[in-house]
């Protein structure tokens, strides 16, 4: 069933002695705002965790689906070749991925052929076939109908604007990125072992945040949901993923991460009954300790008094 309500949500999560989102352009240091020192986690990183959760929890159900029931595949997977994913839509629908070229007229035949500039070259697929392929991709891939995707390069499945959007997460307070030396009691090659005289040690570096509490905002549009087929069941799966995604994404690099709060504002109107920013301001996080090192060092104040007419607050965590 298609959505008939607008949703805005606030996601609180924390990290202890880990790196929530390293920056590969900065030696994998935790991302931060250079002016304020607040920590950042990109929307891409959060969506990756949602994708991984859906792939993990829906994998068994998708192994032997009934016809038309395969709805929870993930389009942007590790090591995926996206044009191969796009080609599946044309193969399943028995469409020709090659866009037909118009027949040249007599005048054009007399002129020497000129190669089109690269940006004007035709993509594979066109017209109604693209629309059919786009609908097929939305139906079969959870992340396409949720977050949207650009699928118009190569095998053309069009572009999808997703109904669910998530902002960068920002830490409540400035963070400190600590750097640690680590030792591996092994080497990769015999040449390294001979060079060390059998000591066989490899030195490395590791970056962590002692503690950080992060806040991200999200939005769900029912109008865009109708265009992609994002349903009430998909929305419930999204809430579940946001609530539990860190529990199944453990690694030595990320330390202890957990969702600490998921506050959802449900609007009766599809257009919305109040501006999102005024609702987000009702969730206030106050530091209780000078140097916070746990979630207990913060207090989350939720102002539920006199909510705007037509808005309900749902606590998922």
Can you walk through the features of this model?
The protein is an alpha+beta fold and about 325 residues long. The protein has two domains: about 160 residues, no CATH class; about 100 residues, no CATH class. It has nine helices and 14 strands. A hairpin with an 8-residue loop joins strand 5 and strand 6. The longest helix is centred in the N-terminal third of the chain and has 20 residues. The chain is flat.
Write a brief caption for the model.
The chain is built from nine helices and 14 strands.
Structural features:
alpha+beta, 8-stranded antiparallel sheet, two-stranded antiparallel sheet, 14 strands, flat
> Which percent band covers the strand fraction?
25-35%
Which oligomeric state applies? single chain
Tally of alpha and pi helices: 9
- Percentage of residues in helical conformation: 25-40%
- Mean model confidence by pLDDT: 89
**Main pleated sheet:** 8 strands, antiparallel
| Poorly predicted regions | 65-69, 99-103, 118-122
User: Structural class of the secondary structure composition?
Assistant: alpha+beta
Overall outline: flat
Rg computed from alpha carbons, rounded to a whole number of angstroms = 25 Å
**SSE series:** EEEEHHHHHEEEEEHEHHEHEEE
């Amino acid at each position: 069933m298609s959505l008939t309500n607008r949703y805005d949500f606030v996601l609180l999560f924390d990290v202890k002695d880990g790196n929530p989102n390293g920056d590969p352009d900065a030696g994998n240091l935790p991302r931060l705002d250079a002016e304020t020192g607040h920590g950042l986690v990109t929307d891409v990183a959060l969506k990756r965790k949602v994708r991984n959760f859906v792939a993990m929890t829906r994998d068994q159900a998708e192994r032997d689906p009934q016809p038309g029931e395969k709805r929870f595949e993930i389009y942007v997977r590790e090591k995926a070749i996206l044009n191969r994913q796009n080609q599946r839509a044309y193969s399943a629908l028995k469409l020709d991925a090659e866009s037909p070229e118009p027949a040249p007229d007599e005048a054009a035949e007399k002129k020497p052929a000129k190669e089109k500039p690269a940006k004007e070259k035709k993509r594979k697929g066109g017209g109604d076939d693209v629309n059919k392929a786009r609908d097929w991709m939305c139906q079969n891939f959870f992340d396409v109908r949720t977050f949207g995707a650009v699928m118009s390069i190569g095998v053309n499945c069009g572009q999808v604007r997703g109904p669910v959007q998530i902002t960068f997460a920002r830490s409540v307070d400035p963070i400190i990125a600590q750097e640690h030396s680590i030792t591996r009691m092994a080497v990769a090659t015999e040449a390294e072992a001979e060079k060390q005289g059998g000591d066989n040690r490899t030195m490395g570096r590791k970056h962590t945040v002692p503690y950080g509490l992060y806040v991200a905002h999200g939005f769900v549009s029912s109008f865009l949901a109708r265009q992609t087929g994002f349903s009430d069941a998909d929305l419930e799966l999204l809430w579940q993923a946001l609530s539990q995604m860190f529990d199944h994404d453990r690694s030595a690099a990320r330390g202890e991460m957990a969702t600490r709060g998921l506050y959802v504002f449900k609007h009766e109107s599809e257009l919305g009954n109040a501006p999102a920013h005024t609702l987000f301001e009702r969730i206030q996080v106050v530091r209780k300790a000078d140097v916070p090192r746990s979630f207990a060092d913060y207090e989350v104040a939720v102002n539920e008094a006199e909510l705007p007419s037509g808005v309900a607050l749902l606590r998922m965590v």
